[in-house]
């Protein structure tokens, strides 16, 4: 089953019960990725995965000369998820970068 919300708002409470989601794909406002991950976390079952698109942000995340708010936000998100004991985190350097976050 797939759900898509293009309204700019994210309220998962109407479509999923806690611990029932296997996978969530996030391709949205990059500066709000952390918020989306926090909202999805309780919905995921143990072993469930959040896929985050564009986590290299046109290569800017790997270039320290880029310090715009969006780039810094994605950098911080990558670091936070990597060190968060609730997740197994992998960043795949394919396309514009894809992060796989598996709930422990």
Automatic annotation (TrEMBL):
PROSITE patterns, per database record: SAM_OMT_I
Keyword match Translocase: no
Signal peptide: none
One Gene Ontology biological process: methylation
Pfam family, one: Methyltransf_3
Keywords, ordered alphabetically: Methyltransferase, S-adenosyl-L-methionine, Transferase
Gene Ontology terms, MF aspect: O-methyltransferase activity; S-adenosylmethionine-dependent methyltransferase activity
Similarity comment text for this entry: Belongs to the class I-like SAM-binding methyltransferase superfamily. Cation-dependent O-methyltransferase family.
PANTHER family registered for this protein in UniProt: CAFFEOYL-COA O-METHYLTRANSFERASE 3-RELATED, O-METHYLTRANSFERASE-RELATED
Protein's name according to its UniProt entry: Caffeoyl-CoA O-methyltransferase
